Amino acid sequence: MRTIDSIIAELQAVASNPKKAMDDYKKATGKGAVGIMPVYSPEELVHAAGYLPMGMWGGSKSISKARAFLPPFACSIMQEVMELELEGAYDDLEAVVFSVPCDTLKCMSQKWKGKCPTITFTHPQNRKIAAANVFTKGEYEVVKEKLEQILGVKITDEAIENSIKVYNANRQAMRAFSDLAAEYPNIITPAKRHAVIKARHFMEKSQHTALVNELIEAVKKTEKQPWTGKKVILTGIMAEPDGLLDILQANNFAVVADDLAQEGRQFRVDVEENTGDPLMALAKAWQALDGCSLATDPEKPRGKMLIDMAKKYNADAVIVCMMKFCDPEEWDYPILIQEFEKAGVKNIQIEVDQEATSYEQTKTRLQSFSEIL
Amino acid sequence: MNVININEASAKELLGYYQAKLDEEAREAKKAGKLVCWSASVAPPEMCVAMDIAMVYPETHAAGIGARKGSLDMLAVAEQKGYNLDICSYARVNLGYMELLKQEAMTGETPEKLANSPAARVPLPDLVITCNNICNTLLKWYENLAKELDIPCIIIDVPFNHTMPIQRRCKEYIAAQFEEAIKILEKVCGRKFDYDKFLEVQKQVQRSVEQWNRVASFAQLEPSPLNGFDLFNYMGLIVCARARDYAEITFKRFADELQAKYEAGQYAFGAAENEKCRVAWEGIAVWTYLGHTFKTLKKEGAVMVGSCYPGMWSLVYKPGDMLSMAEAYTKIYINTCLENRANVLKETAEKSHSEGAVMHLNRSCKLMGFLNNEGGEYLTKELGIPYVSFDGDQTDPRNYSEAQYETRVQALVEMIQERK
User: Fold this and answer.
1) Helix, strand, coil content of chain A in percent (nearest 5)
2) Backbone angles phi, psi at B66, to 5 degrees
3) Which residues of chain B fall below pLDDT 70?
4) Does the predicted interface ipTM exceed a cut of 0.90?
5) I need a surface site. Which of A266, B90, B167, B402 has the fewest CB within 10 A?
6) What is the pLDDT of residues B225-263, one digit of tens each?
7) pTM higher than the cut 0.90
8) What is the spatial distance between Cα A335 and Cα A349, in angstroms, rounded to a whole number?
C-alpha cells in the first residue's frame, strides 16, 4: 500500500502539470482530450465519448499577449485563459466546450484564439421552472451532436448513463475527501487539499476516484491529531495560486469545507442515475445546483448555505475569495456580509488574482484576521 | 406638473412632459396603494402594463441622475454597502438610490443625500421584472433588489444565442416564461390576467416601435437632419413608455419635425456644409459627459448617425403570437453570436453611410466592451472604415477622460479625411 505522501504527490503532479496528464491519457488510450471551459459543463458527454475532459482553469502566466484582446478589467482567470489561448496551450485539444453563464464568458466564447473548434451552449437562468430543463436538454443534445461530429464517435445513452455513474462516484469520493480533510487538517494542508481536488479536472474520473479513495483509506488509518489552529470555509470561484493557500497554512487556518466553483460546487449535486433519459438527468442537475453566483436565484440561498456549512463544520470564519473583476461574485458579496453579520459568522474578503506573485497585503490581512478569531 | 397642449407641443416639450408624467404616475400609484414594478430596460412590460402596474426603469433613472451630475452620491452609498467599483455603474447608482429610499421608508426621515439629489423621485417597487437580453448583470442586479426588498422577482431569461437564427427551443422556453410571469402577476395582483388588455398593449408597443424606428431612419439621409445624440435623449421614452401611447405620440411628432426640417434644408448641424463627416457610435452614452462627447464630435463637423444601441428597442413582433414576441426580445444584437452582432454593426454603419466609428469601451459594460475590437475590425475589413476606441463609463464620471476622448476623435476624423 502506498503512503499518503506518495498518493498526494501523484495528484499534485497532475494538478500542476495538466499537459503531461493529457499526454499520458493520449498515450494510454489512443484518444484525445476536449477542453472544458469553466464553470459548469455536462462533462459526462465527453467522458462517454471516450475522450478526456480537460478543465481550463487558467494558470499563473504574466499577462502580456492577452492585453491586446481583453481590457484590464476582465476577470483574472479569463485573462489567463486568453493568454494561454494565444500561446497555443490549447492547440492539442480536439474541441473546447464553452458555457456562458456570465457576460465575460459570452464574449470569450466568441473570440476564441485557439486552433480547435468550440462548442458553445447556454444554461437557462430561470432555472426552477420545468421549461428550463427542456431547454437545457435541447442544448445538451446539440453539444452531444457536435462532439459526435468533431470526434467521429457515436455517444450512446448507455455510455452517458455509465459516465454519470462514474462521475457520481467521483463526486461522492470528493465529498468524503473534503470531510476527511476537515478532520485531518494536520495532514491535508490547504494546498494539498486543493491539489487533490484540482487534479479531478485533468484526469479520467474513475482513475481519480480510485486514487482519492486510496488516499482516504490511508489517511483514516492514521490517528487524528488535535487541531489548535482556526477552521475556515472558502467561498468564491477559486482559491489560487498556492501562494495564497500557503498563507492560510502559515497562519494556522484549516480549510474545513469550501464553496468554490472550481471545487465543492462541482460535486455538490449528483446526477440521477438509470432514468432512461440521461440528458434530462444532466439537465436537472443544473436546476438542482444552488448557491452559485452564476446560477440565478432571487432567493439568493448562498448566504444561508454558508451559514449552515459554518455550523456543520464548526468553522471559525468564512473567507470570501474574490476573483478579481468577477462581477457575478462581487454581486453576491453585499448580501453575504449582511447575512453573515446577522448570523454572527465572522468573515473576510481576500482578492484572488491568478497572476499574483506577491501576497503581502493578503498576508497582513489574514494575520490580523487570525488574531481576532 | 406643467400642463401642455399635446397637439401643439414640440417633440422636445412632449419628451419632458411625458418623462415627468411617468414618474408622477408611479408616485401617484404608490400613494393610491397600486402596484409599482421596477423593470430592466429591455424587459417586456406588456404583461405588467396589462395588469395596470406602474413601471419604473432604474437604468433610465440612473442615466438621468448621471446626466444631472448626481451619480457620485449614489455610487458612494452603494460602495458603502459593499458594491465593488467593478460593478455596472447604473446598478450601483440604482442600488444606492434604493438604499436611501429604504432608509427613508424605515425611519420616516429623508436621508440628506436623497434630499439633495437631483434624481427624479420614484417610489420603491412592490415587484421587479428583469430580462438578460442586454446582459447577465441584470440578473444579479434584480436578484439583489428582490432580496433586499423581499419582493417577487419576475425573470424573463433569454438564453445567449450562440447560434443564429434563433432556435425554436429558445423561443419556446421564453414563451413558457411569459406564461409563468402571468401566473406570478395573477397571484401578486389577486385577479385574473387581462388577456384583452395584453393584446392591446402589444399593439401599442408595435406602434411605438414603428415611430421610434421612423425617427432613427432619418439618420440615413445625407446630410442628416437627425443628430444621433438625440436618439440618446429620446431613448428614455422607448424604454419607459413603449407600452403607452406617450412614446408613439412623441416619436411621431419628432419624426414629423425631422421630415419638415429635411425638406427645409436644415440638418443636424444647421447648413449642409457643416456636416463634414459621418460617424457611427458603438456603446451606451457617457451620460455624465453627454455634452462633451457630442460637442467634441461637432467641433470636428462629425455628425453621429449610426448607433446599434437605440436599435435594441426595435422590438417588432406579431401581437397575439407569444413565440414571435419571444423572438423579438431575445434577438437583441448583443445577445447573439459575434457573426450576427458584427453584421448588425456593419448594417447600421452601412445604412447610415458612416465613414468611421467611435467605440465606447465602457467600464460598466463588459458584454458590449469585450467585443468592441472585433466589431471595429469587422467594420474596417468589410467597409474599409476606421474606428477608434475610448475609455468611458455610462454613469461613473471617474472613468472618463475628456482629453483622451478629444484625442481619439481627432485621430478618427483625420483618418476619415485621409480616406476621402
Assistant:
1) 55, 10, 35
2) -65, -45
3) 1
4) yes
5) B402
6) 999 999 999 999 999 999 999 999 999 999 999 999 999
7) yes
8) 13
Task: Decide: A355 and A243 in contact? Cβ < 8 Å.
Answer: no
Quick check: A291 pLDDT over 80? yes
Q: Can you state the percent helix, strand and coil of chain B, rounding each to 5?
A: 60, 10, 30
Q: Do B393 and A129 touch, CB atoms closer than 8 A?
A: no
Count the neighbouring beta carbons within 10 Å of the beta carbon of residue A181: 25
Q: What contacts 24+ positions apart, CB below 8 Å, involve B76-81?
A: B76/B113, B77/B113, B81/A334
- Nearest by Cα to B151 from A117, A299, A350: A299
Express each pLDDT in B345-382 by its tens digit.
999 999 999 999 999 999 999 999 999 999 999 999 99
Amino acid letter, A363:
K
Alpha carbon of A254: minimum distance to chain B alpha carbons (Å): 27
Residues from chain B contacting residue A70 (CB–CB below 8 Å):
370
> Domains (ranges, CATH) in chain B?
11-197 (3.40.50.11890), 222-419 (3.40.50.11900)
Distance CA B332, CA B135 (A): 10
The verdict on whether omega for the bond into residue B223 sits within 30 degrees of 0, i.e. cis, is: yes
CA B55 to chain centre: 15
Residues of A in contact with B337 (CB under 8 A): 110
pLDDT tens digits, A156-187: 999 999 999 999 999 999 999 999 999 999 99
Q: Give how far A126 is from chain B: nearest CA, Å.
A: 6
Chain B residues 332-371 with a CB less than 8 Å from chain A = 337-338, 341, 361, 363, 366-367, 369-371
Distance of alpha carbon A224 from alpha carbon A109, whole angstroms: 47
